[in-house]
């Protein structure tokens, strides 16, 4: 399981010109689910996200978590995070989980993350063509992969 986490001042998802979800200060998370992912990946990654200290304290140091700042989270599914570009110029998505496997894991990820932060998490629509807008704060953008825990 792989995420691109962006610290944002605001973010939103629109589908077919209809606003689906929006948040204020917090994280926009692009979530890629791999065929090899399990509940263990979800638990580890959600715990890491909730406790990650990338918000500034009163001294300007990145020392606060999304919990500390009472931030919001918006999760958008993005299978292209598992693109392989080793051969040729057309990416291969062979490692990305198929929808029948990915959708339940996506839903479990959202549920687990809501439990970790104690509030509702905004979402896009799995598999839809989405317009994702954000105001990146910093910018701060971090990638986390549950298969690389070092």
Automatic annotation (TrEMBL):
Enzyme class: hydrolase
Annotated Gene Ontology cellular component terms: cytoplasm
UniProt KW Coiled coil keyword: no
GO molecular function: D-tyrosyl-tRNA(Tyr) deacylase activity; Gly-tRNA(Ala) deacylase activity; Ser(Gly)-tRNA(Ala) hydrolase activity; tRNA binding
Compartments (UniProt record): Cytoplasm
InterPro entries: Daa-tRNA_deacyls_DTD, DTD-like_sf
Keyword vocabulary terms for this entry: Cytoplasm, Hydrolase, RNA-binding, tRNA-binding
Biological processes annotated in GO: D-amino acid catabolic process
Catalyzed chemical reaction(s): glycyl-tRNA(Ala) + H2O = tRNA(Ala) + glycine + H(+); a D-aminoacyl-tRNA + H2O = a tRNA + a D-alpha-amino acid + H(+)
Entry EC number(s): 3.1.1.96, 3.1.1.-
Function, as annotated: An aminoacyl-tRNA editing enzyme that deacylates mischarged D-aminoacyl-tRNAs. Also deacylates mischarged glycyl-tRNA(Ala), protecting cells against glycine mischarging by AlaRS. Acts via tRNA-based rather than protein-based catalysis; rejects L-amino acids rather than detecting D-amino acids in the active site. By recycling D-aminoacyl-tRNA to D-amino acids and free tRNA molecules, this enzyme counteracts the toxicity associated with the formation of D-aminoacyl-tRNA entities in vivo and helps enforce protein L-homochirality.
Protein name in UniProt: D-aminoacyl-tRNA deacylase
Organism this protein belongs to: Rasiella rasia
Lineage: Bacteria, Pseudomonadati, Bacteroidota, Flavobacteriia, Flavobacteriales
